[in-house]
Design brief:
It is a single chain. Helix content is about 75%, strand content about 0%. The protein has about 450 residues and is an all-alpha fold. It has two domains: about 20-200 and about 245-455, MFS general substrate transporter like domains (Growth Hormone, Chain: A, Up-down Bundle); about 205-245, Orthogonal Bundle (GTP Cyclohydrolase I, Chain A, domain 1). Helix 6 (about 145-170) packs antiparallel against helix 13 (about 295-320), helix 11 packs antiparallel against helix 18 (about 420-440) and helix 12 (about 275-290) packs antiparallel against helix 13. The radius of gyration is 21 Å and the shape is globular. GO terms for molecular function: transmembrane transporter activity.
């Protein structure tokens, strides 16, 4: 599918800014590398589960804890990053994330005991949670409204790229001997180092700079993005959005005029993780093996899963600023409900492995084209400027807690309830999400962050 993204400078009718898209894409791409590490870190464990479980002699509950604990670390990362990114800035927080990604990859891979393994997985989760909060927020605060949807969606594309690379790394390192799982985890450090050095090519978010009264530097960044007229107009709009702010406080999230917006953000975050994709991403080889596939074949199918996830994200990039956020969420939740029911039937009636593969790939394709990217776009743009850091922190905290429970509970649910019942539960969650979106989520495409704030705080 062709993606309608112009190149170099974008000039249209008189009065429209001349956008420096080369610089805009550079900022968005570098920030999106945090998403690549997010996806890599979350998916790399899928190929290691059987090997480290045998090495540490884990039972089902311990295995679920080993896989799911990263989400608790991510919850901590989300809590810390909200305040940290408001204090230090978006860019410096991402630099710290890059260092944590590099350290935790090697630490997890060469852990000598299960406790040490868990500690580094939790540390890795801190990096994931912080990056998941700051990266889309940084892109949204830098990108012009006209391109914001597709550029934040590039962050989701980076996540899918990381997942694909993780599956590929697992497949390529499968036959490296007893220490194969150690090399799988350690491979995360290479993209982390690349991310670290890439961050020195970009500047700070202009909205953060204005908030810190660094107006001149913010105007320089805005001028570089869209020219002098664009900088003056945006700078004035951003300053007005901060005009009534005295001091950001977490209590503001529960004020009468903002609490409804916060609840919408938390709902989007929770449902995006509870719908079932985490079970597929984290346990793909085990699911395929239960469907009767050989180990090598199951790992190869996981690579295909990652490729499907990557390819269908391009649909979202092309559609999000045309179809809109709300409709993609509605279509996605409805289709995922149907697909989850099909998976439940396939396992219940023991259909051939080919159909399991079709429905799993279909589920991932739908998620990649709808809920996956739209979640981060919605969370990065629906909150008012003055509470964005704390609101993003609360929403991503809820996201990671939901991720933890769905990921950690899957081995137990699979054992005691069976896969048919497990996927029926996911189908029900997708149906509830459809109703939630229809009742609560407005359309925000084409609007500036300040216009969205006015829309939602009427």
């Amino acid at each position: 599918m062709a993606i309608a993204i112009p190149t170099q400078l974008d000039t249209v009718s008189r009065g429209t800014p001349v956008y420096n898209l080369t610089y805009i894409y550079l900022v968005s791409t570098v920030a999106a590398l945090g998403g690549l590490l997010f996806g890599f870190d979350m998916a790399i464990i899928s190929g290691t589960v059987r090997f480290f479980s045998d090495f540490f002699q884990l039972d089902n509950i311990e295995t679920g804890w080993a896989v799911g604990c990263i989400n608790l670390g991510s919850a901590v990362g989300a809590l810390v990053a909200g305040k940290l990114s408001d204090t230090l800035g978006r860019k410096k927080t991402l630099v710290l994330c890059a260092l944590l990604f590099a350290l935790s990859g090697v630490g997890t891979g060469w852990a000598t005991g299960f406790t040490m393994f868990i500690c580094f997985r939790l540390l890795s989760g801190v990096a994931v949670g912080a990056a998941a909060l700051v990266c889309p927020m940084y892109i949204a605060e830098t990108a012009p409204a006209r391109f914001r949807g597709r550029l934040v969606t590039v962050y989701q594309l980076a996540i899918t790229t990381g997942i694909l690379l993780a599956y590929l790394a697992n497949y390529l390192l499968l036959d490296t001997g007893l220490n194969n799982w150690r090399w799988m985890f350690s491979s995360q450090s290479l993209p982390a180092i690349f991310f670290f050095f890439s961050l020195f090519l970009v500047t700070e978010s202009p909205r953060w700079l204005i908030r810190k009264q660094r107006i001149e530097l913010a105007n320089q960044v805005l001028t570089k993005i869209g020219g002098a007229d664009y900088a003056n107009q945006e700078s004035e709009a951003i300053r007005q959005s901060f005009a009534q702010e005295i001091k950001e406080n977490s209590r503001d999230l529960f004020s009468k005029d903002l609490f409804g917006i916060v609840l919408i953000g938390v709902g989007i975050a929770v449902f995006s993780q509870a719908d079932g994709q985490n079970s597929l991403f984290s346990y793909a080889p085990a699911i395929f093996q239960q469907a009767g596939m050989a180990e090598d074949s199951a790992f190869l199918q996981s690579v295909i899963l990652g490729l499907i996830n990557f390819v269908f994200t391009f649909f979202a990039i092309g559609a999000i600023d045309k179809i809109g956020r709300r409709y993609l969420l509605l279509y996605g939740s409805a289709l995922l409900c149907v697909d989850a029911l099909a998976l439940a039937m396939a396992f219940y009636f023991q259909w051939p492995g080919f159909w399991i593969l079709v429905f799993v790939l279909g589920f991932i394709a739908i998620y990649a084209a709808t809920l996956g990217p739209v979640t981060w776009v919605a969370l990065s743009e629906i909150f008012p400027n003055r509470i964005r850091g704390n609101a993003m922190a609360l929403s991503t905290l809820a996201l990671w807690i939901a991720n933890f429970f769905t990921t950690a509970s899957f081995p137990v649910m699979k054992t005691y309830l069976g896969l048919p019942a497990t996927f029926c539960i996911h189908a029900g969650i997708c149906l509830i999400y459809f109703v939630f979106v229809k009742a609560n989520v407005p359309e925000t495409k084409g609007k500036s962050l300040e216009e969205i704030e006015q829309l939602l705080t009427k």
